[in-house]
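Researcher: Go.
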Amino acid sequence: MSIPLPTSVDATLDLLSRGDYVADRALSTALYLALKLRRPLFLEGEAGTGKTEIAKVLSRTLGRRLLRLQCYEGLDVASAVYEWNYARQMMEIRLAEATGDRDRDALASDLFSDAFLIKRPLLQALEPDLAGPPVLLIDELDRTDEPFEAYLLEVLSDFQVTIPEFGTIRAPEPPIVILTSNRTREIHDALKRRCFYHWVDYPSAEREREILRVKAPNADARLAAQVVGFVQRLRAMDLYKAPGVAETLDWAQALVELNQLELEPSVINDTLGTLLKYQDDIARIQGSEAARLLAQVKTELAATRAP
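Model: Structure:
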């Protein structure tokens, strides 16, 4: 049974909330418009800010199938769209030769039929589904090459794929398309024009505390506030890779497993590898710098609690 799409920005906020996704109104507005006007939504931002999770939440809350295309350098049509099952085709040719029950034209027609077509995520997304059009996640598009971007133009413009031996396959209804990019390179304007765009930034301290409350409910409130305060300060520093929301959650959950009720310098030093992913960043923060940042966080939190 198909679950209706949200009919307003507030309903979109509620939809994301039901999937335990804490969104701001700007993101919910962009998502609502993309769903309402049946346009792809292009989400750009630093790694770990929750872009991919939006597609997963939509799949769960709308009851739609999730089709994920994980992009990488060298991604081609055979991996992303379709390829022919050459092994089965060869077996069919040998069987036809052995039995002699089909002429060459009939055999050629059979070999390039749906039975021998291996469908990859982009082609699967164009197929009808009783639950409604699927959610197509094209993840980390910036990792692909420009020729693959050019191929996507047909898919995202007309929601169709042309297979020379088979014909053109069109979606009866456009899939819900979410594209993400960590901006390791610029995506071509021609592709961006076919999408609504939203930059997914690091959350404010208030929203990040809410994310921890939802995603890591076992974390003590004092610990969660200190974790968010510490991470927010790290993001203001010139690190090789600032921690994303995903790292904040990992760190909070690790601290809960260690039975921590609040941050301490020694615990920070022991667990920085959960939060930071480059040794140069870890070496810069460990020791006196971690103690200094923690002291600032505790002072600020104490001031906000004071009457």
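Model: The CA atoms of residues 41 and 145 lie 20 Å apart.
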